[in-house]
Amino acid sequence: MVKLPPTEVLLLSLLNRLRAGRPVSLSRKVSIGMAAHGNAKTTREALEALFASAQGDFELILVDDLSPDNSLEVYREAAKRHANTRIFSFGSNLEYCHSVNAFLSHGSGERLLFLSNDIFVNPSYLRQLLAASAANPGCGVLRGCSNFVDNDSPAHNVSAGPLPTRKARFAFGAEIARRHAARPLADERFLVGDAFLVTRALLDRVGTFDTRFVGYCADMDLGLRAQIAGFRVVLVPQAFAVHEEHVNIKYLPPEAQQRKIALRMSRIGEALRLFREKYALPPKAANVHELPWEALAKQPFDPARHHVAPLDYSRYLLK
Predict the structure, then answer these.
(1) Whole-prediction pTM value?
(2) Which CATH superfamily is domain 21-251 in?
């Protein structure tokens, strides 16, 4: 390795810091989706981070899952700032699976990036994910790392410390990209769907979310169907975005928090039961880490079983 003179090292460091805050230019070939059920404050912050990180005529699809607050107005404000925006507003609370599916079913890009409303992106995150996708066409699903990912994986969960400002978040995202520049993509056992990118080729082959799942496991199911169809599902270690841990629960009053947690736990159990049933797994496999992912991914691809046709959510599209 060639050792650079101190002045060149300083200049390179300065250039990297400047680039860390420069938004990525995205065309219509990229679709970005965000969904929310309440917590308008965090949704606004997530959209502000996106607009500071990306410019250009990318497609933006926003899904309001019957929010009880002014989240829909936050979306309308975003649409005034970004012309290529469509807003879907559900007439009832259809939950995460339908929210993501509305984006996957109606996004027109060659690459589609879904973001939960508590994910704060940065330019480096977008650059790394899109570059990895372009360089690896066999990867159908790609996701990055974060300060919090609900899968107990050290590779996904990066110790970040306090990142109170956008400048700090952008700089840390650039630092992770630099720190892990030489690390290869890591193949995943299953997908955690708080933020992920899929390709058009993947959607054409396996379709969208299976909305028989309510709230949970549709992301794992999509990732498994991708692998069955011969696509890689990977972690891009260079792509880091901030995830506000449990912020979509903590903003609620204490009693409402307990009700939401109890509802989540019941839905997780039912979703796992349905997942086991769909793939003919024994009932004793009660934990996602106990499922035989490698064996499941080796089964032959059957379009009748492993393709889920997009659904039409156009009745929810705001004019």
Answers:
(1) 0.91
(2) Spore Coat Polysaccharide Biosynthesis Protein SpsA; Chain A (3.90.550.10)
